[in-house]
Amino acid sequence: TPLNNRGTKSSYEKGTIACNYTKIIEPVYKNNKIAGVVAEDQKSGEIFNSNAKKVVNAAGPWVDALRLLD
């Protein structure tokens, strides 16, 4: 929706990374808090680490599958 696109664009301009077609392989923790993820690009197969000050779970209907990784 346009509202979501504006929010994503605004966040991106402030340094956020938004990824589509990405599978979370495992969460990364630091001091018992989530600090990022190990993820796989589902189009290229590339595995990458993403570290962050804040992590937003926007998995929608796949939220339970993602929580099982924790």
Summarize the structure.
This protein has 70 residues and is α+β, with helices and mostly antiparallel strands. 24% of the residues lie in helices and 33% in strands.
Please tally the helical runs, counting DSSP H or I stretches of 4 or more residues: 2
**What portion of residues belong to β-strands?**
25-35%
Secondary structure tally: strands: 3
Q: What does the average pLDDT come to? A: 84
Secondary-structure element series? HEEEH
* Beginning-to-end CA distance, first to last residue: 30 Å
For the largest sheet, list the strands in their spatial order: 1-2-3
Biggest sheet features: 3 strands, antiparallel
Describe this structure in words.
The protein has 70 residues and is an alpha+beta fold. The protein contains two helices and three strands, in the order αβββα. The chain has a three-stranded antiparallel sheet with strand order 1-2-3, with no helix packed on it. The N and C termini lie far apart (30 Å). The model has no long low-confidence stretch (mean pLDDT 84).
Topology:
Layout: H1 2-13, E1 22-30, E2 33-41, E3 47-51, H2 63-67
Keywords:
about 70 residues, alpha+beta
